[in-house]
Amino acid sequence: MHAPSVPLSAWWATAVAFTMIFLVVFVPLMPNRNLRIRMCLVPVAMAAFIAVSRRMGAGMPQETALPVYVTLVLAPLVGFVGRWGELREKCRDYAIHGKRRENSLSRGTWLQLTAAVLFFLPLGVWLTTAST
């Protein structure tokens, strides 16, 4: 099965759209300004990771890098579906008490998030095959 060939402009539009969705969903869950700023930097860190990967990949084309970025942004969105309340509660506890065992995510949330990453990262790699 071959990956669909998607034009570069569509990948850019998809990357911008999913980045905005990521920010709209996750930033309001954060209880204070400091955590909201940190959450806003997550897509920047993902983009920096892709940019460094492009440099190390001897000029990897954008058509190859953008599908991976899109799936990296999409994975946590899907990974936390149904777990927004827990995430909000744990972030609130983290803001008040700092990092401690009681404010770590539940095993079910970690499993769901891991499953989403394990699904979406290979999907992003598969989508890059259309451009090579």
Please describe what this structure looks like.
This protein is mainly α and 132 residues long.
Structure, briefly:
With 132 residues, the chain is an all-alpha fold. It has helices at 8-26, 33-56, 62-79, 84-97, 107-128. The mean pLDDT is 87.
Task: Give the secondary structure arrangement, pairings included.
Layout: H1 8-26, H2 33-56, H3 62-79, H4 84-97, H5 107-128
Helix pairs in contact: 1-2, 1-3, 2-3, 3-5
Number of helices: 5
Query: What proportion of the residues is helical, as a percent range?
Result: over 70%
Q: What is the rounded distance between the termini?
A: 15 Å
**Biggest β-sheet description:** none
Number of beta-strand segments: 0
SSE string, helix = H, strand = E?
Answer: HHHHH
Q: Characterize the overall form.
A: elongated
Low-pLDDT parts are none
Structural class: mainly alpha
Overall average pLDDT: 87
Question: Strand content of the residues, in percent?
Answer: under 5%
Q: What is the CA-atom radius of gyration, in angstroms?
A: 16 Å
Based on the model shown, name its key terms.
132 residues; mainly alpha; elongated
